[in-house]
Amino acid sequence: MDKKIFLDGHIDVPEDRLAAVTAALPLHIELTRAEPGCLSFSVTLSNDVAGRFLVSEVFTDQAAFDHHQARTKASAWFKVTEGIPRDYVIRQED
Predict the structure, then answer these.
(1) CATH number of the CATH domain containing 20
(2) Beta strands in 17-85 (DSSP E)
(3) Looking at residues 75-91, what average pLDDT do you find?
(4) What are the residues facing 92 on neighbouring strands?
(5) Model pTM score
(6) How many domains does the chain have?
(7) Closest to 82 measured CA to CA, from 92, 72, 91
(8) Dist. CA 47–CA 53, nearest whole Å
(9) Could you list the residue range(s) of the whole structural domain that residue 67 is in?
(10) DSSP assignment letter at 3
């Protein structure tokens, strides 16, 4: 049986890029949630750290997650967030 893939973490967006990232976020969320194998996807602004977006993803299996990664790298979201450090932990269902 395929194991679910979980990604949790954050991206810290510099203040000078915050408006562009925030504007691009709704389409990124919409496209990701429409992907085959996406079980859940959320990106929310942290209440504790300025410019920090908390990211949580669940995909049905590695293939679905890999598809998401490939699609994202060819998207407007990738261009808007390029070079911004991400702190993610990716794990498989036990």
Answers:
(1) 3.30.70.100
(2) 38-45, 52-59
(3) 95
(4) 5
(5) 0.92
(6) 1
(7) 72
(8) 9
(9) 5-92
(10) P
